[in-house]
Amino acid sequence: MKYIIFLIVFVTILFYPAYAQSEKNLSIVSQTIEIPYDDFNTMARDTIATSIEEPHAISWQASIENNLVYANPNGNAVIRFYDLNIPEKFIEIGMGSNPDEKFWLAVQIPDDTGYVVVHNKPERGWTPGTIPTLTYTEKGGLTVNNGQRIVISNLGIGSFQIASYSVFGMESSTDPPATNSGTLTLNFISGDPAESQFFLFPFFLVGGIGVFIVILLVTKKRS
């Protein structure tokens, strides 16, 4: 056992400096978008999708800093993320005003399940000051954290590349404004883990351990 531990330390020391000096993952894309409060004073049917400069694909995370000031107890802040290849396909996340602070997540997958609410908490669904996040990988699906805990884990939604977004907050044209000040900030980061040199490090480590064990077995048999 002590030999295996020694090998792990040795291989780590051997390979880590080389990886640390290698190029960074050039596939990584990061972006921050600030959305003013007045954009939420509209209904879903009147929203216009806004394109993102560079789509976020393969593996991505979207975090939401909600610093909006709501104008009435029924006001909402709803964000929809649209897929690059199927524009009608979207992920919807909603955050209601206090005192209820409802929180929900829905997905629309055309020609499959349609529009489905996959998580809905009418009360204390999110907490102002926290940062809800959506994390996606092609193999792992969609995971959603409401800022305090994971509420959706590994939801299968197929391939999804964020290409655009839209926002709204009113349910009816007769509603008062949903928000009256503040901003909502979207932070995106995405990339292809396979393009990182560190992606292969565990395979080298396991392979080295395997070779070392074989050498030990052969040596033991000869002795």
Can you walk me through this structure?
- The chain is α+β, with helices and mostly antiparallel strands.
- The protein has one domain: Jelly Rolls (Sandwich), CATH 2.60.120.
- 19% of the residues lie in helices and 42% in strands.
- The protein contains two helices and twelve strands.
- A six-stranded antiparallel β-sheet has the order 1-12-3-8-9-10, with no helix packed on it. It has a six-stranded antiparallel β-sheet with strand order 2-11-4-5-6-7, with no helix packed on it.
- Helix 1 (2-21) packs antiparallel against helix 2.
- The protein is globular, with a radius of gyration of 23 Å.
- The two termini are 18 Å apart.
- The model is unreliable at 2-11, 13-22 and 198-212 (pLDDT under 50).
Structural class: alpha+beta
**Overall pLDDT, averaged?**
84
The number of helical runs is 2
Number of domains: 1
Features:
223 residues; alpha+beta; Jelly Rolls; six-stranded antiparallel β-sheet; globular; disordered N terminus
What topology emerges from the helices and strands here?
Layout: H1 2-21, E1 29-36, E2 50-56, E3 59-70, E4 76-83, E5 90-96, E6 103-109, E7 114-121, E8 133-137, E9 141-145, E10 150-155, E11 162-168, E12 179-191, H2 201-222
Antiparallel strand pairs: 1-12, 2-11, 3-8, 3-12, 4-5, 4-11, 5-6, 6-7, 8-9, 9-10
Helix pairs in contact: 1-2
